[in-house]
Amino acid sequence: MQDYIQRWQALPGNVRGSIIVIVASLVSVMMSSLIKHVGQTIPVIEILFVRQILVLIIISPVIFRNRATVFKSNIYGMHFMRAALSICAMYLGFSAVVNMPLAEVTAISFARILFTTILAIIFLNEVIGIRRWTSIIIGFVGVIVIIRPDPENFNIYALMAIVSALFVSAVQIILRKLTQIDKPSTILVFHSVSITLFMSIPAYFLWVMPSLDEMFYILMIGGLMSMMQWLFIQALRVGEAAAIAPMEYTRLLYAGVIGMIFFAETPTVWTLSGAGIIVASTLYTMHRNTLKASEK
Questions:
Q1: Cβ count near 265 (within 10 Å)
Q2: pLDDT in tens, 256-283
Q3: What are the phi and psi torsion angles at 207 (to 5°)?
């Protein structure tokens, strides 16, 4: 065992980070698959609420150790806005997962990188050139290829997936601001507690008593979510963000395989083509963002 640990530590940081992201991406798709399965009978908001209870249990030591200062902030409005957008992003995104093929939802979710670039221009006063604008436009062409908007056959869940990606991007922009002002413990705890409180009301009114199997799956969802977040943190600790981020595209492969095996979903040529366009455009966008950051 010690020999394996030494071999692992001998690997370059970016290699270790990439491997961790590949594993984290598999965990992410497994979590989405369980949500898709359980969401057929249990409301999405209930699944998310139980998951948040688990998150609170996990971070309770942080709350206890910092109980005197953890809720002190001068920007409560920004914290509440982040929590509200997070709830909307999770509800819309997971509702799309329940009702759409996994590969399609996964491909659309990568549009968040394109949205983040646009929001950074608007709210962080970042400046981009014609090449990145072209990449963003091409990326959204890929989204259109996947959903193929048709007035006579409107797909509300595809729209939910797109709006979810937008809200995830907005949450990331707000988080950039918060990290410049508040401590990490305050950001973490305030976010988790406020989301749990906000979700408690709709969860109460929509509550469906889960079976033992369903409760087991919901608990697994919470555990997989925590594992996924921990893995991504570990990946960023050992590897460079620009080097390991492309590995997250393995989610598309996992989603396609799991969708075919467990949900009898076959990716269409439109999904594959649109996914390819999105992947290419977001990889280029990340590349340009990295170059821009290195120039500062």
A1: 19
A2: 999 999 999 988 888 888 888 888 887 7
A3: -60, 130
